[in-house]
Model the fold of this input.
Amino acid sequence: MKVVIAHNRYVSGRPSGENAVVAAEMDDLVAAGVTVLPFLRSSDEIPTLPFRERAALPVSPVYARRAQRELAALLQRERPDVVHLHNPYPLLSPWVVRTAQRHGVPVVHTLHNYRQTCVNGLHLRDGAACHDCVGSAAPWPAVRHGCYRGSRAQSMAMAAALATHRGTWQRLDRVIALTPAMAEYARSLGIDPARVSVKPNTVPDPGRHRQAGEGFLFAGRLSAEKGVEVLLDAWQRHRDGERGTLRVAGDGPLAGVVREHAARRADVEYLGPCSADEVAAAMRRSRVVVVPSTWAEVCPRVVIEAMANGRPVLGTNLGGVPWLIGADEPTPAGWVVDPTPAALADGLDRSPEVADDLGVAARTRYERQFAPPIATATLIRIYEDVARTGPTL
Done:
């Protein structure tokens, strides 16, 4: 089987979980015997583009001419079975769906965010949930607020893309939703439920271990929507050392706030930016991984990484977190609370009673639902299904 993986990589200066997911997924497919044809662009290219292409950037989210020309040549040359689209912005554009289908190739698209109805993909503005553009013929509130990179001009370009491609998503041959909550989002876009499949992200298996661990770990971008300030506020409600050590791994605009807390309290340790191996080591040194997101995060990899390392997750009851840890199931891999300092403080108090048992459940849940062989087999079945039925026209 031949599969084109189409993805516009995010800028390397801001580490992207989506970039890592796509790269790992390609490796897993190759290992499973699939012929992967990468069709990749990177936002790092933008400063070096020829003048003509840079001048066309405002329209590229709607129609990226070069990408369509290169994709058409690739499809004619390789005759793949499927095109799998991840992030189309800004150098590919959703028009790749129409280009592929015009050449008789079905398209699968993974919903990594809410970019179909929100120009920044988060449904988040000024640190709070925002759905002002949902249901509008065009997302003008996003332009008014400069929701895309703080720029009204760039927000206008993305708003035009959302308005133009509202019907493009309904043409998709299959949509991959990373959680059931995202499957519901896909259906809200008018996509036929029969064309929606749930397949979560995965992470490489680090293997089992017997390390007991102590304290808590936050690993992620140090920004408001990730909830690090809420966590630090909750931590302040306990005496120094009462709940062990709080380790914080990552970088971002709130790194200074984390450093200040680490300077004031002996039980807060700032690890700084960490590699994947360093994060895994920090997880094994800790007893619980905390995911205090204040927005409806789609499918945070850190939750799956925690379960892979046999660590339960204390998360907030938003987005995909409750489903990922099986919060409503008989043997969950953690527990969820409201995204407030008081609720999170209560969640921290609960950990000594349940952490060890839930750690075992976390590793078992990873092995049964999130290990790479399971995710890859599911993905290949999706490819085979759409290749058999052909493109939607």
About this structure: The mean pLDDT is 93. The chain has 14 helices and 14 strands.
